[in-house]
Structures are given as C-alpha cells and as structure tokens.
C-alpha cells in the first residue's frame, strides 16, 4: 500500500488479466473513484470504488490506500464547456458542423491530457453497402487505431470499416449469454466486436462480412486476441455464405438494424434444432418491437416455434426512433 492517500478506500481486487473488463463494468455502473490511482501488485489489480455496497457480489472488495490521482487537464478545462466526442483507441471523433468550433475542439483535445494521436470530424453520414463515412482529419494524419473493449483489442480503420464504440455495453450484454461449446454465426461481423469475444468464451464462431477490409481486420483481430482457432472469417454476401452452414447454429447475431429483416430467412436457415437469434432493428418508439417480431415469426413459419425472450432498447437513434434488439428463441417443431 502506498500510504499517500488521505484515508483508505474500498478497492475491487481482481487478477490483472481481468482488469480491463472489470474496470469497464465498474465504469458502466459509475463506481470508479476518479481521485485515486489504479494499482497493480503481485499479479492483482486494485480498482478504487466510490461505494463498496454497490459493487456486484462477484467481486472481492478490500481496503487500500492508493496514490491520490493527479488531476488531468481535460478539454472542458481548456474550453470552458463540456464538449461531446468519442474515443476509439487514440483516435478521437467529433461531430461539429461549424468548422471554427471543430478546429477549436480539436486543439483542446490535443492540448489536454487525453491520450490522442488523431482528431477527426464526421464529414458525411454512414453510406453504401460497407456502411462507411467520410472524415475530416483535424489533427494527426491517420484513421487507423487499436480500440480496447472489455479486455479485447480491435485494430480498425474508421475510414474503411464501420465501428461504433457506443455499442460496447450492448455487445457485452449479448456476449455474456454465450457458453463454451456453442456454435455462433455472426452475419454482419465487421472487425469482430461480437465474434471475437464470443470465441474467447469458448464458442465456435463463423463470422461473415461483405467488406473485404473488415474481414482482413477481423482475421487480424482474431489473431490479436488468440481466438483464431475457434473463429472462421468469411468474406462475401451472407446469403451465399450461409448455404454451407444450414442447420448449424446455436446462436445467430444480426446487427444490421436498418435491413436485418431482409435476412431473416437466412437466419432461420442457419438455425439448428434450437437457436437464439439476436435481431437488431430501428423502429418508431410507438411500436419498437412489433415489426421485427412479426417478420421473424413469418420467416420461421411452421418450422420453428418462436419465443421472444428479451425486448431490449439499445439506444435512441433519431427523434421518436429507437435502436432495439430482440433476443428470440427458435425451437424446431
């Protein structure tokens, strides 16, 4: 114990290899104590928390006296207001229509203590069959980065592939349902944020994407996370790729919310005797789950009994529109 804090504080103690996923879980609950340093000692990591009673029972809590954290200089300290931005590794994404304000924000991000190599501004909407967008580079000179999420690393280039850090918690929610030995098919895999963690949990995973660059990164990310032996990456139209895996899957992930319903026949064809489908959709808030449920039942027909196990709102998408997920169980009749 360093003894330089004012008083001992409760700390969650976990093995070092579980450090990042635990830090993320505590951060999602707002429990990390920002005024004390995270410490590593004898193969264990100690994460200071604000309320020991609110820590999930799965974690061990001990008293410790970590160093007082040096106050980092934030963009808000420089700008005088709290800006909005996203981080993917050391690439920071802003969304500003005013060029002068965008430049001011980029300068503040670079000047702050936030780890940053590149600042980019969104220059177009997501478009095309690869779901990519244009970027204006405000600082730095590259759009490739390594993003870390729940203990896994993903190399990607945001100019060449689609990736949303906002969906980290949702991806983790799904992955936590996966058991070792399952056979999982990720229909729109991108660089692997669903597929890689599912393989890490011991599932046999087939991951498909239409974008050749996404599949290149997917294969690299499987190697980076030591799951290449359990992950098969397939480039091409999933409707064609799925023909080799009909009746194979215990679990299917369909994260293509605008058009996933167009692929439900393929998802049903992939299903084995019993299969869980994670179907993402974007609908009006007045009936967010009805259209996907109806479309899934129509695709299943008389072949499967469909049970919707979870109706989950992922996030707001646009005024009066929400991004949702149905976790549905298919049982062959």
TrEMBL record:
Origin: domain of life: Archaea
CC annotations in GO: cytoplasm
Alphabetical UniProt keywords: Cytoplasm, Methyltransferase, S-adenosyl-L-methionine, Transferase, tRNA processing
Gene3D superfamilies tied to this protein: 3.30.70.2580, Met-10+ protein-like domains, Vaccinia Virus protein VP39
A Gene Ontology molecular function term of the record: tRNA methyltransferase activity
Residue span, SAM-dependent methyltransferase TRM5/TYW2-type domain: 85-332
One biological process term in Gene Ontology: tRNA N1-guanine methylation
Record bears the keyword S-adenosyl-L-methionine: yes
CDD domains found in the cross-reference section: AdoMet_MTases
PANTHER family the UniProt entry points to: TRNA (GUANINE(37)-N1)-METHYLTRANSFERASE (PTHR23245:SF36), TRNA METHYLTRANSFERASE (PTHR23245)
Protein name: SAM-dependent methyltransferase TRM5/TYW2-type domain-containing protein
Protein's organism: Candidatus Halobonum tyrrellensis G22
């Amino acid at each position: 114990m360093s003894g330089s804090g004012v008083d001992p504080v409760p700390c969650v103690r976990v093995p070092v290899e579980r450090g990042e996923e635990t830090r993320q879980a505590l951060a999602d609950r707002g429990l990390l104590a920002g005024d004390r340093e995270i410490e590593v000692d004898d193969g264990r990591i100690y994460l200071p928390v604000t309320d020991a009673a609110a820590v999930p029972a799965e974690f061990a809590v001990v008293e410790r006296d970590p160093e007082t954290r040096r106050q980092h200089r934030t963009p808000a300290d420089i700008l005088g207001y709290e800006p909005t931005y996203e981080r993917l590794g050391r690439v920071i994404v802003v969304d500003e229509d005013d060029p002068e304000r965008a430049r001011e924000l980029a300068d503040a991000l670079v000047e702050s203590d936030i780890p940053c190599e590149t600042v980019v501004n969104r220059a177009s909407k997501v478009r095309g069959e690869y779901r990519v967008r244009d970027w204006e580079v405000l600082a730095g000179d590259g759009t490739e980065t390594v993003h870390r999420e729940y203990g896994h690393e993903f190399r990607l280039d945001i100019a060449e592939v689609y990736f949303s850090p906002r969906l980290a918690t949702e991806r983790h929610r799904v992955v936590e349902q996966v058991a070792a030995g399952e056979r999982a098919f990720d229909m729109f895999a991108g660089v692997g944020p669903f597929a890689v963690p599912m393989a890490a949990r011991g599932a046999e995973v087939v991951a498909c994407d239409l974008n050749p660059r996404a599949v290149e990164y997917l294969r690299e990310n499987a190697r980076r996370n030591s799951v290449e032996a359990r992950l098969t990456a397939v480039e091409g139209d999933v409707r064609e790729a799925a023909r080799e895996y009909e009746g194979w899957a215990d679990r299917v992930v369909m994260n293509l919310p605008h058009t996933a319903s167009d692929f439900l026949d393929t998802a049903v064809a992939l299903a084995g005797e019993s299969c869980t489908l994670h179907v993402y959709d974007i609908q009006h808030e007045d009936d967010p789950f009805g259209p996907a449920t109806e479309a899934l039942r129509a695709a299943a027909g008389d072949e499967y009994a469909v049970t919707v196990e979870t109706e989950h709102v992922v996030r707001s998408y646009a005024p009066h529109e929400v991004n949702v997920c149905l976790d549905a169980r298919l049982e062959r009749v």
